[in-house]
Design brief:
alpha/beta; catalytic activity; Rossmann fold; single chain
């Protein structure tokens, strides 16, 4: 077997929600490399590494018993912090099919998300705006990557001529892992029963032995048992659909959904994704688990066939992380000589919730502060460096901020208390009931190359003069690499009566507990500055570096001791004492903490 790939060589993520899905996906690997030798210390995910075709893949599964979009967002957030060169994700597993006259979907078939018009092929059906009492879903998710769409088209054309290889891959999987035959084999057409949409399950047993066979939908017998592949819209949400009437209504209202599942929308904003679902039930009252294993195997088999159709040259590998650069040896074939000190660290997604709101203009990106609790006091902001949007820092918008904050405050009393402290007077003892934060806009400002910027700032005379006092007193120093803001935010201290995940109107019928005007900072991302004394005595100091001379009075003497010190940023962001969890933004995810 070839040497185990380095961490930065993994470019494809395969995400599963259930252990049976991960088993099927792992069984499709051409080579299995086991667990990673290194991952982000804060990353609690469990990974299996391997190769499919020419691609090195990372397989991860949601924690046992934890499902839905928020859990999926947390998983992918930490995955891309450990595997910095992941380019896209395949979401592989099972789903509930939506059979119709135009789409004769059967159990064991495969549905693949496919964009249509402005729709990315994934619709978050339980999130949108209220119109005449109904939820109109938003289609603001990212499109799948072009490299996958191109391979998908090529694969579909080949299937029209020679058929797909799903059954072949499943058969090889069962030969390689005989223990899987009992559960992952084809269940048989006699167990594929489709009842009329409005006919409910009449018995307490998981099977349909006692259901009325007269309510079965008549369907033509297929010529073979080969799984069919359907391309179209997949519905994603936090609700388990197990009602035929609701299934058909949601499908019709949302771009003719072919399949329902629960994780994809949580990943689409974090990383380019393609969703592959094996159909294990019809999302009606007759759901059972008889087809789950085979459906998972069919989805994994299609994922393998798709990856084998993607040329490796279309997925470039870039060395991004200096942490990884220190842990891995670069391949001679890369023809790239990179110094670990020269590689830039993208800011880690960790934000500390402040004790109070700060006007956006009162705190500057790339400023240095002595006390994280009071970032607008005793700080340094260079007058010689002007930051340019797009070149020095990025600004991104959270589309799901209002919904997430309300849900997290409901499940975390500590987080709820921290939010209340932001908005309410100090005399307030607490807030009873659920709360909601409504904001016209939530933005994230992040430095793109904090280490380079810090070195440029620390080489200036004005910074070195300001730093002298902090160094003499050995005070810690923090660099502002990012912050989060809300615009015209409202704090609502009473239970919200609207359905879950509905985007609420700001024209509320009752008065909020607190209002803020304009854009305010409420969370900041800090990097601690690390100092090192490099030498004593008279030393020639190089210009435009992060080294400089300082003079300290010696105790009990009139002379001054000349020292040369250097400064750099720590690799990881600062965190507070209270861990609030991972915030699933539509752009990436961040760890939220507080004091």
């Amino acid at each position: 077997m070839a040497p185990k790939p380095d961490t930065f060589e993994y470019t494809v993520a395969m995400v599963c929600a259930l252990a049976l899905e991960m088993a099927a996906t792992t069984a499709m690997l051409d080579e299995v490399y086991g667990k990673p030798e290194w991952q982000d210390p804060r990353d609690k995910n469990n990974y299996t590494l391997g190769r499919i075709g020419q691609h090195y893949v990372v397989i991860a599964c949601l924690p046992e018993g934890v499902y839905g979009m928020t859990a999926a967002t947390s998983l992918i957030t930490w995955m891309i912090s450990s595997f910095r060169n992941i380019k896209f994700a395949l979401i592989v597993g099972i789903g509930g099919g939506v059979p119709s006259v135009s789409h004769d979907i059967r159990l064991g078939d495969v549905v693949v998300s496919k964009p249509r018009g402005t729709s990315p092929g994934i619709v978050q059906y339980d999130f949108g705006k209220a119109v005449n009492g109904e939820i109109i879903a938003n289609s603001s998710l990212d499109m799948p990557p072009k490299v996958l769409l191109t391979a998908m088209s090529s694969l579909a054309a080949g299937h029209m001529m020679t058929g797909n290889k799903i059954s072949i891959h499943v058969s090889k999987m069962l030969e390689r892992y005989p223990r899987m035959k009992e559960k992952f084999s084809y269940p048989g057409t006699d167990k594929d029963l489709l009842y009329e949409a409005d006919y409910g399950h009449t018995a307490d047993t998981p099977t349909c032995d006692q259901c009325d066979s007269g309510k079965l939908v008549p369907r033509a017998t297929r010529k073979n048992t080969e799984p069919a592949i359907f391309y179209g819209t997949i519905g994603s949400g936090n609700l388990v659909i197990k009602d035929g009437v609701m299934r058909d209504r949601l499908a019709k209202e949302n771009n003719n959904i072919l399949c329902f599942e629960m994780e994809a929308a949580g990943l689409m904003g974090q990383l380019p994704c393609l969703v592959i679902r094996g159909i294990c039930d019809y999302a009606d009252a007759h759901k059972n688990k008889a087809w789950q294993e085979y459906a998972a195997a069919a989805a994994a088999a299609y994922a393998k066939e798709l990856l084998c159709a993607v040329p490796s040259r279309d997925i470039s590998v870039e060395v991004i992380s200096p942490t990884l650069a220190l842990r891995t040896s670069f391949k001679a074939s890369s023809n790239v000589q990179v110094s670990a000190a020269e590689v830039q660290t993208p800011p880690s997604p960790s934000f500390i919730l402040t004790d109070r709101f700060h006007l956006k203009d009162s705190i500057s990106l790339a400023s240095l502060v002595l006390d994280r609790r009071y970032p607008n006091q005793d700080y340094f902001s260079s007058s010689m460096i002007s930051l340019q949007k797009g070149e020095d820092f990025s600004v991104s918008i959270d589309q799901n901020f209002n919904e997430f904050v309300g849900a997290c405050a409901k499940s975390s009393p500590v987080f709820k208390k921290a939010l209340a402290k932001l908005f309410l007077p100090p005399s307030t003892k607490g807030v009873e009931g659920d709360i909601q934060i409504m904001s016209k806009q939530s933005s994230v400002y992040t430095l793109l190359q904090p280490r380079t910027l810090f070195k440029n700032i620390s080489s200036t005379t004005e910074f070195q003069d300001w730093l002298g006092d902090a160094w003499a007193r050995r005070k810690p120093l923090y660099f502002v690499v990012g912050y989060r803001t809300v615009t015209d935010a409202q704090f609502i201290g009473k239970e919200i009566k609207s359905p879950q995940n509905r985007r609420l109107s700001r024209n509320l019928s009752y008065k909020p507990r607190y209002d803020t005007d304009g854009e305010r900072i409420y969370a900041i991302c800090f990097r601690k500055v690390k100092f090192e004394r490099t030498s004593e005595g008279t030393v020639q100091v190089l210009g435009s570096t992060n080294r400089w001379r300082v003079f300290n009075k010696q105790r009990g003497a009139n002379s001054e001791l000349e020292q040369v010190i250097s400064a750099d940023l720590c690799e990881d962001d600062e965190v507070g004492t209270n861990d609030f969890g991972v915030f699933p933004t539509q752009n990436r995810g961040e760890l939220w903490t507080g004091f």
